[in-house]
Amino acid sequence: MPHSHATLQQRIAYTFHDPTLLQTALTHPSIKGHTPAAQDYQRLEFLGDAVLGLIFAETLYATATPNATEGALSEARAHLARGSTLATAARRLHLAQHLHTTPHGDTQRIRNTDTASEDALEALFGALYLDGGLDAARTLARQLFATELQNNLTQPEQNRSPKNRLQEHLQQTNNTPPPRIEYRLATETGPPHARHFTMQVWVNDTL
Q1: What is the H or E stretch that residue 196 is in?
Q2: Active-site residue (options: 40, 45, 75, 122)
Q3: pLDDT at position 3 over 60
Q4: pLDDT digits (tens, 9 = 90+) for 166-179
Q5: pTM, to two decimals
Q6: Catalytic residue among 49, 75, 119, 131
Q7: What gap in Å lies between CA 144 and CA 199, rounded to an integer?
Q8: Residue 45 annotated as catalytic
Q9: What is the average pLDDT value for the chain, to the nearest integer?
Q10: Is 58 annotated as catalytic?
């Protein structure tokens, strides 16, 4: 196995029993332009997305504050799984430098994109799950996302969007049937490239 793969395995503190899984997890789809039959990371990315979602969900469910609502937990999980969070975690592993890409000169551009890092990280978790089961994936996830998990566990409500918090509040304070909530454009200002919109919230046709 290439030295770079050995270095990455040291970083994640896991040695693959099936090295081809790690190879596939690090193979960018651009490689098919050069080698059509090559396996890229897209299928593993699909699996890894679900694996990470489960790990985030079970961790939040088990350790969040008792007053955390379903909505708060869902938004905390979404916050953990969003692209920017995954890209940050991928950079901690220097994952982009291990990617196998097209040999046609786009390697550095691809490695510099957050999208490739996010996708490869999800693929890595898919490969970990297939090679070592959920325990292997869980161990790395809880180490790699330790700071983000702690922030989401202690302050799940703060991660919720104002819109969702408002909707939940209105649904809890109104009698059945559920209130009819509308968002209407009030004003639109600023130049075309930097428009500023002000919205109004109408509940049962009342501002």
Answers
A1: strand 196-203
A2: 122
A3: no
A4: 655 665 665 566 67
A5: 0.72
A6: 49
A7: 39
A8: no
A9: 82
A10: no
